[in-house]
Design a protein that fits this description.
Number of helices: 3
CATH topology: OB fold (Dihydrolipoamide Acetyltransferase, E2P)
CATH superfamily: CheA-289, Domain 4
Number of strands: 13
Radius of gyration: 15 Å
CATH class: Mainly Beta
Largest sheet: 6 strands, mixed
Helix content: 10-25%
Structural class: mainly beta
Distance between the termini: 43 Å
Strand content: over 45%
Shape: globular
Order of helices and strands: EEEEEHEEEEEEEEHH
Strand order of the largest sheet: 8-1-2-13-12-9
Oligomer: single chain
CATH architecture: Beta Barrel
């Protein structure tokens, strides 16, 4: 029996990305974000989610993709990275799928404008779509995590 991975699918522009379900804590609608001075430009600020202060990152900004207006489809995907909660702003998140581990190939140098180091791989889905799998440990590097920990509640 092939090992399957449960993945949350989200979109940035026309590209579909995936994060393993066990790394995602919750998906929230867009909410007011409090700006924090002297942070990286892709750090939009912090949100207060049920009494917990969580740093929020715009994945478009992180991946040097053009910014767009937030819509009613915009979501904040709250993930756990190294014992810390971080919110990722995405264009939409509306699917959970199972993919076979052996359907994930190592990433090319750049996919959809995103550098390979941020990616775990590219999964070929049965309906011919490609799903770009994020490597959460690289989306935030060590110095960025230290900075975010200093603003986390």
């Amino acid at each position: 029996m092939e090992e399957e991975l449960k993945v949350i699918v989200f979109k940035l522009g026309s590209e579909e990305y995936g994060i393993e379900v066990d790394k995602v804590q919750t998906i929230e609608r867009m909410m007011p974000i409090t700006r924090v001075p002297k942070t990286f430009s892709f750090v939009k600020g912090v949100i207060n989610l049920r009494g917990v202060v969580i740093p929020v990152i715009d994945l478009r900004g992180r991946f040097s993709l053009p910014e767009t207006e937030y819509t009613d489809q915009t979501r904040i995907v709250i993930v756990g990275v190294d014992d810390m909660q971080v919110g990722f702003i995405v264009d939409s998140a509306n699917d959970v799928i199972d993919i076979k581990r052996d359907a994930i190939d190592s990433p090319p140098e750049v996919v959809g404008g995103v550098k390979a180091r941020y990616l775990r791989g590219v999964a070929k889905l049965e309906d011919t779509r490609l799903l770009i799998m994020l490597n959460l440990n690289e989306v935030l590097n060590k110095s960025e995590i230290v900075q975010l920990e200093s603003i986390e509640g």
